[in-house]
């Protein structure tokens, strides 16, 4: 007996809610579907379904088993699809994650544009500032910012990401402009999600722990406070380039700007061969290159 026997039938019954509709979906007889599920339960020595005359429902064991089976079946079908046609159109379910603010502003619009061309594709996007375990939680793709930690995941660079130390002209007129890293401690710092700010000094990375009377875990909120003259901020380019161009912010300590990091597409190695992942990564890279926030990052943007 194949270890796969009964899995398709069980998943169909669980998703359809009864044996008749599951049989219709699979184009099998109801008796065959019922027999395969019963044999599966016997093999597992566990009840997966509660059966009534009208409907079936999942037991606790069935709920746990269903999530794994759905993923197994999807990956099995995708494996066949990948081998049969490496250049086929994206299909099936793609699960991805990105940081909240960056995802809302850049990634989701590009994903929506991509989906418009592939109606057979389904996408689930989880926007969170937590670093999720992609493999354990079943994600195909993650968009990550900054520097990557060591892992078995594969990363593709999508866009640059430069950090700027900035302040509004009104703040600098009142409190003065820092000219060295040692002077930062004399200023009110607007603190975001990180506890440290990174700089370069004498060819080495230098970490500064900011302090001040304002903190929020939103980059947009930090930007607003900086524009109001509340203090210094360190933010990525896509937040501050436009205010810098308009003169609403002034770039500070340019010689100490930290090395550029990046925006990354991260995925398990085996997932990249799937058209839905490979083509979306390409579309995100091309789309970000066209965003106004990533154009013309030249020295003349700095004051």
CATH architecture descriptor text of the largest domain = 3-Layer(aba) Sandwich
Helix content: 25-40%
CATH superfamily of the largest domain: Periplasmic binding protein-like II
CATH third-tier fold name of the largest domain: D-Maltodextrin-Binding Protein, domain 2
Count the strands? 14
Distance between the termini: 73 Å
Helix count, DSSP H or I runs of 4 or more residues:
10
Computed Rg: 26 Å
Tell me the structural class: alpha/beta
Shape: elongated
Main beta sheet, described? 5 strands, mixed
Strand order within the widest sheet?
Answer: 4-3-5-14-6
Give the tally of structural domains.
Answer: 3
| CATH class group of the largest domain | Alpha Beta
Bin the strand percentage.
Answer: 15-25%
Low-confidence residue ranges: 296-303
Average predicted confidence as pLDDT: 88
Order of helices and strands: HHHEEHEHEHEEEHEEEEHEHEEH
């Amino acid at each position: 007996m194949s270890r796969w026997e009964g899995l398709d039938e069980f998943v169909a019954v669980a998703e359809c809610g009864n044996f008749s509709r599951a049989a219709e979906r699979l184009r099998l007889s109801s008796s065959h579907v019922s027999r395969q599920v019963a044999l599966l339960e016997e093999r597992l020595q566990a009840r997966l379904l509660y059966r009534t005359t009208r409907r079936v429902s999942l037991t606790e064991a069935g709920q746990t088993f269903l999530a794994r089976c759905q993923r197994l079946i999807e990956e099995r079908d995708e494996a066949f699809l990948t081998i049969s046609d490496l250049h086929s159109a994206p299909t099936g379910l793609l699960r991805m994650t990105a940081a909240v603010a960056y995802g809302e502003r850049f990634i989701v619009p590009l994903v929506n544009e991509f989906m418009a061309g592939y109606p057979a594709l389904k996408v689930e996007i989880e926007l969170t500032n937590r670093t999720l375990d992609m493999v354990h939680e079943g994600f195909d793709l993650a968009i990550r910012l900054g520097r990557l930690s060591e892992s078995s995941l594969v990363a593709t660079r999508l866009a640059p990401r430069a950090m700027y130390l900035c302040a509004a002209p009104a703040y600098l007129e009142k409190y003065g402009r820092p000219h060295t890293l040692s002077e930062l401690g004399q200023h009110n710092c607007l603190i975001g999600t990180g506890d440290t700010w990174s700089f370069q000094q004498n060819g080495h990375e230098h970490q500064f722990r900011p302090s001040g009377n304002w903190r929020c875990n939103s980059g947009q909120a930090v930007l607003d406070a900086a524009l109001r003259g509340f203090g210094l901020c360190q933010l990525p380019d896509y937040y501050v380039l436009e205010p810098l161009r308009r003169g609403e912010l002034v770039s500070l300590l340019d010689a100490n700007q930290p090395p550029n990091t990046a925006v990354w597409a991260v995925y398990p190695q085996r997932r990249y061969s799937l058209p839905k992942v490979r083509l979306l990564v390409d579309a995100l890279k091309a789309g970000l290159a066209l965003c106004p926030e990533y154009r013309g990052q030249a020295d003349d943007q700095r004051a």
